[in-house]
Amino acid sequence: MLAALLLAALAQSIDSTPARHPPRSVAIDERLATDARIALGDRLDVTTTPGGVGDTVIVTAMVRRRADPSEVARSEYRVIMHLDELQSLVGYGDRVDRFAVATRGRAATDSAIRHINDVAFGFHAFRSRDIAVETSRTFLVVSRFHRAIGVITIVASAIFLLCIMLLKVDERRRDVAALRLMGISARSIVRSVMVEAALVAVVGSGVGVALGWFAAQLINWHYRGVYRTPLAFALVTPGIVVLAVALSLVLGLAAGLLASQRLVRMPALELLTGRREARHVTAVVR
Amino acid sequence: MLGVAVSAAMLLDMVMLSTGMRVSLRTLLLSRGFQLRLAPKGTLPFDTDATIPDASNVIRVLRTIPEVSTISPVLGGQLHVTVGTRTITATALGVEPSVQGDYEITQGRPSARPNELVASDDFLRATGAKIGDTLSAASGYDPQLRSFTGRRTFLVVGRARFLYMPAEHRAVALPIATLQQMRGAELRDRASLFMIRAREGADVDTVLQHIQAALPAVTAVSIETAMRQVDERMSYFRQLAFILGAVSLAVGFLLVTTLVTVSVNERLGEIVVMRAIGVARSRVVLQIVIEGVAIMFVGAIAGLGLGLVTARYLNSILAAFPGLPAAIDFFVFEPRDAWGALGLLTVAGILAGIYPSWRGASLPIAITLREEAVG
């Protein structure tokens, strides 16, 4: 009888399904939640292969992408799971890809790195700063590219500014001629043109800064939407404003000087009539 | 004229940038004739460490599709080679040497036996190995036992240029079965990627559909799909090219307008005299517009040379992108681009001449003549 009961109990324990553990919690990417319409508290089946055997998890948190440039062009979704759960799901065993280690100050970091690398086999300790430098190489390249494009743009803008200034000054050649005929010195005319050029440059750069700020807002709005990241793509910093205004002022003054020199070197009568023959007439009169 | 040349150069560069990456990538992807790639579900080839299980079954299924002509499985991994006290780590590609599409042999021969490998220049330089040398290599580490795992001895039989890797990269290629064995149970019968060549005359999209239907657990990627995905990731450069190209065109337009306006202002007397002696207004307008086009044209020709020089410089900057295959260029010159830029500049030149010419030709003849004569 006892033997029969024991057998029955064993059979029952063999037949019954093993006790299932409650679903583990996961945090999911906000973008995944939006795209797949997943809400907090939803249960998900996670597998390593489509349609394969996996595990059921419960969504307990949403995570937002960090403002990390290295993640910008990557469009994959992210699910944050408990380490042991992921190891078991992907059959990774007792392994990890990396450890993050907090130390007590710079000296402790140095000694920890030295110690780990002395005893390590098959892995290596790095400073977070070194990893950041390595992973940001892409952005250094982009930054160099932007700088090169910026230089070309500045050259083109400088020439453009010069042309505009020449045109504006040229339009006033009769006024300048009249001033010259009235006895105003060439130096005074050059000075007045340069003051005006400086004023135009400062006002222009002010408008430019405002336009740049609006453009930066537009760029950030657009690319934040495209890449779904909180990263700032364009920034108008005080340093950039100072550089832009200084550059504009220098270019404006140079353009004003060139344009005014060109005008004051021409005989006043030629300026007034716009005819080259006037030079000969002037020479004869003299 | 210098300003117009700079604008034209910038415009040409931006036209080259907007199409260069696509042209270059397409040429690279098609360089070995494989029109399709199979990657783990939801990924692009080698975008993640994920692998495709049951590779031999995938090959068997693919062989049942009549339009498939060649299947080249690829497994990615690492190889650690001990040289003296140093350990050199290289990217290892497990391939079927007879059908591979990942490298070109530049010296020696392809591997024909399980223990033979071909290596990149950079790997041979780092290890000091030559063709015919024997190397001891491992596929992994066991930190607990402090030993290498998957150890093998390889004979270096060739020097290769790896098409999808940066120029300076330590890489080796060995038979896929050897790499799978070295990695043990973890990667048994797995592949990172399959490259597929369709039979001549077969419609690639149809082959793609057949593969997707037969193998729903993998992602089949055609050249077009790959281009589209790369386009999405690199859209920034196309948008930058579009914006800067438009700005260059606008600057060129304004410059030519300025130059023609100055020129017209200086020749107001001549223009009204022409009008006074009966030259038609349209003729005057045409003359001034031609002047604008001529300025733009000469500037564009000068800008062509300048643009090619700056494109080369900018390309050299972007070529330093980590992991960028050596064969990829961001700025690719195609005659079509030059014609396109020239066409845009010509239109801008015509438009730039219209305002000053209209202004010059519309001057009241008597009043202007009097002003020009009396001053």
What does this entry look like structurally?
The complex is a heterodimer of chains A (about 290) and B (about 375). Chain A is about 65% helix and about 5% strand. Chain A is elongated. Chain A has 11 helices and 4 strands. In chain B, about 40% of the residues are buried. In chain B, the strands form 2 sheets. Chain B has a 6-stranded mixed β-barrel with strand order 2-3-10-5-9-6. Chain B folds into 2 domains: about 1-25 and about 235-375, no CATH class; about 40-215, no CATH class. Chain B has helices spanning about 1-30, 55-65, 120-125, 175-185, 205-215, 225-235, 235-265, 270-275, 280-320, 335-360, 365-375; strands at about 35-40, 70-85, 85-95, 105-110, 115-120, 135-140, 140, 145-150, 150-160, 170-175, 195-200, 220. With about 375 residues, chain B is an alpha+beta fold. Helix content of chain B is about 50%, strand content about 20%. The chains are: A alpha+beta (about 290), B alpha+beta (about 375).
**Share of residues in strands of chain A:** 5-15%
Distance between the termini of chain B: 30 Å
| End-to-end Cα distance of chain A | 145 Å
The order of strands across the largest sheet of chain A is 2-3-1-4
Rg value of chain B:
31 Å
Helix content of chain A: 55-70%
Number of extended strands of chain A = 4
Give the biggest sheet of chain B: 6 strands, mixed, barrel
Strand arrangement, major sheet of chain B? 2-3-10-5-9-6
The assigned structural class of chain A equals: alpha+beta
Mean pLDDT figure of chain B: 85
Largest sheet of chain A: 4 strands, mixed
Q: Number of DSSP helices of chain A?
A: 11
Q: Which regions of chain B are unreliable across 5 or more consecutive residues at pLDDT < 50?
A: none
Number of strands of chain B: 12
The general outline of chain B is elongated
Listing every helix as H and every strand as E from the N terminus to the C terminus, the arrangement of chain A reads HEHEEEHHHHHHHHH
Percent range of helical residues of chain B: 40-55%
